[in-house]
Amino acid sequence: MSNISENILRFRESVEPKATLISVSKTKPISDLEQAYETGQRHFGENKVQEMTSKWEHLPKDIKWHMIGHVQRNKVKYMAPYVHLIHSVDSPRLLKEINKQAKNNDRVINCLFQIHIAREENKFGFDKQELLDYITSEAFKELSHVSITGLMGMATFTDDLDQIRKEFKSLSSLFSKLKEDYFTHDEFKELSMGMTGDYKIAIEEGSTMVRIGSAIFGSRNTH
Ligand SMILES: *Cc1c(COP(=O)(O)O)cnc(C)c1O
Predict the structure, then answer these.
(1) DSSP category for residue 158
(2) What is the pTM of this model?
(3) Whose CA is nearest to atom 13 of ligand 1?
(4) Backbone phi, then psi, for 146, in 5-degree steps?
(5) Atom 6 of ligand 1: nearest residue by CA position
(6) Pocket of ligand 1, beta carbon within 6 A
(7) Pairing of the two strands 146-153 and 64-67
(8) Could you read off the pLDDT of 127-176 as tens digits, one per residue?
(9) DSSP string covering 169-192, please?
């Protein structure tokens, strides 16, 4: 068995059933994804719309494609026909465009709000108050072709495990609050947090989806 298949099986064993394993295949060739697919892996994460779309064209259609990177509005139309879940909704304008393209394709697109929890300024996402203002607005309530199924967040890139845990805890508590107060329980159920370096802490803090790249496919040399 190849390394990739072994890694996939090992990760699935350690994260399921608590969390869904999303194998993050960005920059990796189709042949690597095929090895993962053969083990039964169906959830793949990509961070560029064009790259994801070209992989979607070449691979079996029962793969569930997860967009996890920052999305430019003019790219939404390329993934609207097939994307399974967009984790990285970081602005009202982006969600409005997703709604429009979903409508054009006669489907409802599942989305997570990305929340800014890290110390780094360069990471994308809503601030908590900004999100609360938005989801209580008329503009949000008018969107008929998106389904908000949860939240996504990325912790600070640091060795300070307490800091990481604190950030995941704050995302987890926002998730519970929104589930209680604003969304329907059946629909709002995914908490996407945890990557290669911090997925164990993320699961302890309630993650339902981990996004693992380098520990499965090896390090990425280009980006
Ligand atoms: C690349 C990426 C991952 C996977 O990162 P690894 O550290 O390689 O596991 C997870 N989430 C997002 C948003 C990413 O861009």
Answers:
(1) S
(2) 0.97
(3) 68
(4) -125, 145
(5) 213
(6) 24, 26, 47, 68-69, 154, 195-197, 211-215
(7) unpaired
(8) 999 999 999 999 999 999 999 999 999 999 999 999 999 999 999 999 99
(9) HHHHHHHHHHHHHTS-TTT--EEE
Question: Measured between alpha carbons, how far is residue 110 from residues 40, 53, 122, 178 in Å?
Answer: 23, 17, 25, 17
Tens-digit pLDDT profile for residues 193-203: 999 999 999 99
Residue 117 CA to residue 110 CA, distance in Å, equals 22
- In 56-208, at which residue ranges do the beta strands (DSSP E only) sit? 64-67, 85-89, 109-115, 146-153, 190-192
Residue 135 token pair: 């989801």
CA 18 to centroid of ligand 1, rounded, Å: 19
Q: Please report, for residues 4, 172, 219, the alpha-carbon distance to residue 183 in angstroms, rounded to integers and kept in the order given.
A: 38, 15, 38
Cα 73 to ligand 1 centre (Å): 21
> What is the number of alpha carbons within 13 Å of residue 148 lying toward its C-beta?
24
Q: Which atom number of ligand 1 is nearest to the Cα of residue 197?
A: 7
